[in-house]
From TrEMBL:
Any GO MF annotation of the entry: oxidoreductase activity, acting on the CH-OH group of donors, NAD or NADP as acceptor
Protein name per UniProt: 3-oxoacyl-[acyl-carrier protein] reductase
Organism whose genome encodes this protein: Nocardioides terrae
Keyword terms, alphabetized: NADP, Oxidoreductase
Entry's family note: Belongs to the short-chain dehydrogenases/reductases (SDR) family.
Length: 253
């Protein structure tokens, strides 16, 4: 018996990185998983790599576009037979100091993180409220607390926390739990790209990042997957509106 037997989970930005790690964990625990990502073929390819007996699919969609999101949710419900868990994970960075940050840098980041989470949560809640059951896990970041060069990303990630608290209040009476995870440094293509931008070797960047937390190692997608699976499980049904920092103690001071 897996914790997610008979459950259907949609995870955005799950063709790679943290999202794929979470998709793997949900599938291992019995869920039928829809990997939603920008490129349909990359999403479908990732879905073929998921473990478990349940059916998994890949769906191409831009989370910032309502037509894409509504069509994706319709497809998931039709092909996988329902919807019980949503993880709003898709993300991008457009880092720059404020004086160099363009309007486009701001809009792209807001659109993917905040509007994306809004559109998918809204589409999912219709199903969740009707069936009086649902779990939403949003992905924030330690950068929500402030990070040089990330005014757009920090605002979006702290926005995610307010969004999470508000949905928890609105949807709690309908059997829906809404929580967020704020990862610290996780070794993925996103942080590898940051290393390249800073002209640092990937291993050196990871080593330096590990020095800035209590456990002296970087995080991996599996670390976030474990927390996401707990928050999406029925063991966490009395937890809602919370942001869990999964950062090796990086924000302890
Ligand atoms: N890696 C870290 O250290 C870290 C730390 C804190 C928070 N996060 C957050 O975790 C999430 C996942 O990050 P990651 O490190 O796995 O990044 P990643 O770049 O490896 O993966 C992001 C995925 O999101 C997809 N995506 C981007 N825009 C999209 C859109 N409009 N619609 C659908 N999919 C889209 C990409 O195609 C990609 O597959 C992001 O929200 C990120 O901000 C990451």
């Amino acid at each position: 018996m897996g914790r997610f037997d008979g459950r259907v989970a949609v995870i955005t930005g799950a063709a790679r990185g943290i999202g794929f790690g979470a998709a793997t964990r949900f599938a291992e625990e019995g869920a039928s998983v829809a990997i939603l990502d920008l490129d349909e073929s990359a999403a479908a390819e990732a879905a073929t790599k998921l473990p478990g007996e349940a059916k998994h699919i890949g769906v191409g969609a831009n989370v910032g576009r309502s037509a894409d999101v509504d069509a994706a949710v319709g497809r998931v419900v039709e092909e996988l037979g329902g919807l019980h868990i949503v993880m709003n994970n898709a993300g991008v960075t457009r880092d720059n100091l404020l004086f160099k940050m363009t309007e486009d840098d701001w809009d792209v980041v807001m659109n993917v993180h905040l509007k994306g989470a809004f559109l998918l949560s809204k589409a999912a809640q219709a199903h969740f409220v009707a069936q009086k059951y649902g779990k939403i896990v949003n992905v924030s970041s330690t950068s929500a607390l402030g990070n040089r060069g990330q005014a757009n990303y920090s605002a979006a990630k702290m926005g995610i926390q307010g969004f999470t608290r508000t949905l928890a209040i609105e949807l709690g009476p309908f059997g829906v739990n809404v929580n967020a995870i704020a990862p610290g440094f996780i070794a993925t293509e996103m942080t590898d790209a940051t290393a390249a931008r800073l002209k640092l070797d990937v291993d050196e960047f990871r080593r330096l990042s590990a020095e800035h937390n209590a456990v002296k190692r970087v995080g991996h997608p599996e670390d976030i997957a474990a927390a996401a699976a707990f928050l999406a499980s029925d063991e966490a049904s009395y937890i809602t509106g919370q942001t869990l920092y999964v950062d090796g103690g990086a924000t302890l001071g």
